[in-house]
């Protein structure tokens, strides 16, 4: 990010996302996206705001862009998996969360993976 104003806008958008105010965060983040769209941190923040505002396809695109820019970003894979899960794309969600858990074996990640596996089992049992 180039300008001090851009950095300030990014920080303000982070605060707004943390406060679960995604629409305000996205308005604040607009100029930052214009200036620094190829920064993984900017795409990740936008993806989180899109996810919190149920703009799931936009969230998916933002998280995929983060992974394109930084394939080792385990958190982007985790939230991409959550986004896919909310879209009902359970097998794709499982693949992303499983990879995130392999990259970063955190108990919270493993819990999410277990949740997706249980959901897949319920769906398969009902078939």
UniProtKB/TrEMBL annotation:
Keyword set includes Translocase: no
Presence of the UniProt keyword Cell inner membrane in the record: no
Coiled coil stretches, renumbered: none
InterPro entries: TPR-like_helical_dom_sf, TPR_rpt
TPR repeats: 40-73
SUPFAM superfamilies: TPR-like
UniProt entry keywords in alphabetical sequence: TPR repeat
Database matches in Pfam families: TPR_16 (PF13432)
Protein known as: Tetratricopeptide repeat-containing protein
């Amino acid at each position: 990010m180039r300008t001090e104003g851009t950095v300030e806008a990014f920080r303000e958008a982070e605060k707004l996302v943390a406060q679960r105010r995604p629409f305000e965060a996205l308005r604040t983040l607009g100029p930052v996206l214009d200036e620094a769209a190829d920064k993984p941190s900017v795409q990740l923040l936008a993806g989180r705001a899109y996810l919190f505002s149920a703009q799931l396809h936009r969230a998916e695109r933002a998280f995929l862009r983060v992974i394109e820019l930084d394939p080792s970003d385990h958190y982007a894979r985790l939230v991409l998996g959550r986004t896919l899960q909310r879209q009902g794309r359970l097998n794709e969600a499982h693949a992303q969360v499983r990879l995130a858990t392999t990259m970063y074996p955190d108990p919270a990640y493993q819990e999410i993976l277990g949740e997706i596996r249980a959901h897949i089992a319920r769906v398969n049992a009902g078939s």
